[in-house]
Each structure stands twice: as structure tokens, then as C-alpha cells.
Amino acid sequence: MTDLHDTLPPLEGNFNLCEYFLDSNLEAGRTHKTALICGGETRTYGQVAERARRVAGALRLAGVRAEERVLIVLPDGFAFAESFFGVLRAGAVFAMVNPLLKRGDFEHYLEYAKPRVVITHKDVLPELAEVARESRFVEAVFVVDALDEVDARGFSPYEEVIGTEGALSSGYLEPTGPDDLAGWLFTSGSTGHPKACVHTHADFRWSTETYAKQVARYKESDICLSVPKLFFGYATGTNLMFPFAVGATAVLFPGRSTEDELFDHIGNFGVTFLTNVPTMINKMLNSPRCEGADLGSLRVCLSAGEALPGSLYTAWMERTGVEILDGIGSAEMFHIYISGYPGRVRTGSLGNLVPGYEVEIVNADNSVVAPGEVGRLRVRGGSTSICYWADKKKSRETFQGDWCTTGDLFRADDEGYFYYEGRADDLLKVSGIFVSPLEIEDAMLMHPSVAEVCIVGFEEDDLTKPFAFVVLKNNHAGNEEMAAELKAHLQGRLAPYKYPRWFEWCDELPKNDRGKIDRKELKARLETGSPGSVTP
Question: Distance of CA 416 to CAs 74, 86, 339, 383, Å?
């Protein structure tokens, strides 16, 4: 593993992420610099720091002790950032979930995380309020944008609890150490409920000093914007922690990400640093606004979360001239550990190792494979999670000493470029040969009529064949003629056994709360026998 001890020495003594990310900006003379933009309003670093101090004090007055969980259930906005840093300042542990979840999900998270305090928004209360009252663990709920207790359904209005002199005087910085617990990051939950990856204060600093500063290369002058929302660790890093680490500015908005919202914010605020995902890159390129949109301020575009087809990268470069730094990370490692580097992007590759990380590609016997061969990825570095909370068996399966074994299949070439081959549990065995759905999807996306596609396996007479869920562009009709045209398009690009056997024509594909195409839901749709308009 790359030795960073000369540039990133081990931490000794007290270390608190609130001081590292937020308070350091005051010491650097950025007290009056704009830190956040949201809804036409701004907050300076000094304002965010003062309100984070009040949040820390309010949590202490509510009985929160060091390393106890605080559940953040908020849309993107000023209150999210204040609460996030306030939790860290108090020495508590943040856990963040999607505010658009339903009652059953919230019931699970309250039982699993056992938070003493929940910080949420009044719009979430119809789904959250009753289960919070029934919880054996929750002692206080702070409600953002509630005018009074009636508006907060009997809980505490956020502004009221952080506005007291007691909150301000109790908001001192907890003298945590680098190995003290700081936060939970939830996995994507491909099977069952998401698991919480437990991280220390030092973990988040490691990814900041390696990926954010040495690879993505954030600058103080950057204006940052994210497609994923802040509850997702990918965005918590790229649109909150990393900008604050260099004194940049982050643009936030509370609603769902749409291509129109992105075009508006990029044009209005001169966004330079865009955190994106392939699904949204595709939507932006297919938008009628794309040709005339002002994207001239962009200097960096990130992509992660799902595979980036080479055709999308090429189309984006032709439109913007801005490289996409594709990468892969995980909740287990906090953030990205393989990434494209500025000026070194290779189409179709995820790029090279981030400094401070080491990987192995291994076969079923855990032996390292030769360059060019496909195997399962193992990774280690200074941001590895301690464990999955309350899951000893799965923790032992995933974390072996310093190593974290992923479910991702990769190959690497002799030059140190890595190529993603999909998830091990997504591979299809067709005609006795393993097939990556990504290979089929990438080939189909090269057809000018295809906007989105997802390939899953479907069994007929005990044989698995590729099934294609397809969204077409420009009102093209999904029928037998289009299916034949797509199969003809695949000739010369794929072996015949990889051609989709069936096509379902969709208006849109389902997305999960990370913005990825929800392959799990599409698999379930086939298993329950409820596909839509299917062409054989």
C-alpha cells in the first residue's frame, strides 16, 4: 500500500471532524466567505459554525452522550449541514437516512440505530411521528421548519431548541480521538435492509486527504453541486465534507434531482464541480435543454454509483469538453478508492488506484488473478469500516484483517487501469458461459433510439436468457420491428447468445434512493410474472 506517512502522518491526540472540516475555515480567515447556497439564500462559514455549535449544545441538553447515535432525516439544506457538524461537534455519531422513506422503513431504522435524538423536517412527520413516539429509544425529536409545538406535532421545533442561551453555552467541542466513532454509512441494501458501516473520525479524514485533495483536486474557488442527496455517503463527501475541507462553496436544494434543476443551478451559480451519476448524465444529454444550456463554468464532473457506459462518456465530452472522473467506492470504505485522474481518463475504465489504497483481484480460492483476468475485488486503506453494526457473521465475511472483500468483479491491465465487470450476483450464466449485463447494456446504448436499458436474467425451461427493459428516445415505438433493429445493431458487437431474448418497452426505469436503476425491482417484476408489454 502506498506509504502516506510523510504527507499524511497518523493522528495523535484529540481529533474531531467538526474542527477539521468546519472550524479550520474560521482559522484560515474564511469566516465571512459563503459556504452554502440554498433557495436563493446563503450561509457563511461563520454562520454555519455558530449554528453547529448551537446544535451540539441542544443535543447535550437533550441527554445525548459521546458516541450515541443521532438520526438525521432531513432534505438537503442549511439545517442538514448544521446538524451534521453539530452531531460531530458533540462527539455523537451521525446516521443519515432518506427523508422520503415510509413508516415501515423508519420503524426499522429507529429499532436498529436506537437514536436518542432524531432531527427531521415537518414534512417527514406524517410517516415518522407515530413510530418515533412508539420508539423505546428516542427521547427527543427536533423538527425543522415547524413554527411551534402544534406544527411539530408535539415535538420540539428546531429553531426553538437551538436558539436558547443554554444551547450556545453547551456547544463546546468534544475532545474526541481519531479512533472514536463518528458516523454510520448505510449500504445500498441489495438484499434485505441496508447494513450500517461504522466509521471513526480518522476514516473520513483519510478519504479527504487522498481522494478529494489528490485525485478530484477540489479548490477553494469551486462551486459544488450534487445529483445524489446528502444522506448518501457519496454526496456527503463530495458536496459537504470535501468542499468544506478546502473552503469551497456547496449549492444545495431540497427536492429530487432533475435535469432542469441541474441546468438551472449550473447556469445561475457558475457551478464548477458537479457530482453526477450515469443515469442523470444520460438524462441531461437527452434533454431538449442540453444544446442551449450554459455549462461553460464546469471544470470537473464526477460519476459513481453505477457503471458509466463508454458511449455516455463520449457523448458528454463532445457536448461539454469536461472529463468525467468515474470511480468506485462503497459505504464500507466511506468513499472512492479507484478513480479516473484529470488528464488520464481512459474510456471504459474506472481509472487507477487512489493514493493510500491497495487492491487485489482474486478468484474463488482467494488467489490473485493475472492481469486481464476477471475476479472479485478486495481493497484496504485507511478508511475501512470497523464492522457492520450488529451483524458479526456478515462482518467476518466482508472484513478480513485490513482487507474488505467486495461483491464487485474487476479486471486490471498491465498499466494499472481497472475495468468494472459488474456485481458477482448480477452475472448471467447463458449457454454455460458467464455474461455481464453491463456489456449488453453498453452495446445497446450505442443505438440512437435507446435512452436507457437494464438487462436481467429470465429463466425459460430452466435456461437463463437476457431480458431487456428498454426506454426509447423521441417517441419511438417499442414493437417487433424495433426489437429486430436492436438485435441487428448488436451483430458484430456481441456474440449471438448475448442478444436479449425478450424486450419490455418502458416509459422509465425504476430508480432507488441513490439514483441508480433499481435492478432488484426489475428482477422481482420478472419473478412475480408481471412484466409489461413484452416483445419476444
Answer: 40, 41, 11, 21
